[in-house]
Structure of ArsR family transcriptional regulator:
Amino acid sequence: MTSPLLNRLYSSGGTEIIHPTLEITDGSVRHFLTNGYEDLEVGLESGLLARFIACSISVALPKRGSDGKQDLKFALCNIDGSVSGFLRAALRERREINLVYREYISTDLSYPSKILRYKVKSGSVTATEAQIVAGYFNLLETLWLRYNYTGDFAPGMRYQ
């Protein structure tokens, strides 16, 4: 259930500002990014404080639908290259990259007003920009029945 403040902000704006943020991690390295010109110190849902580094981020949230393709697409410009280098190496090595999109309202930075979690599916990195596609759940790479019925798992399945 969304708050009346969020409903008003989404429909007609107001004096408050919505701050979009991205957390990109491979499990050992974390990058906290926010769109804008100033860094942002906010509270996470875990109760910890985090400092989000300002950079240029373009976010296209997924449309609602039943076609199974609810992808988040984002592009970020990282002048110092630390995030771009991290993404390039992680994509090349096929590491699992998780992404958390959070929105904060400028009047209350203690807790996110919206949290979306994604897994990175694909991406490309150039010298000036990283473009990433992430999704809620990658159904195509999921085993059905959750088991591989191989000769080791089910010896009776093998023809002799």
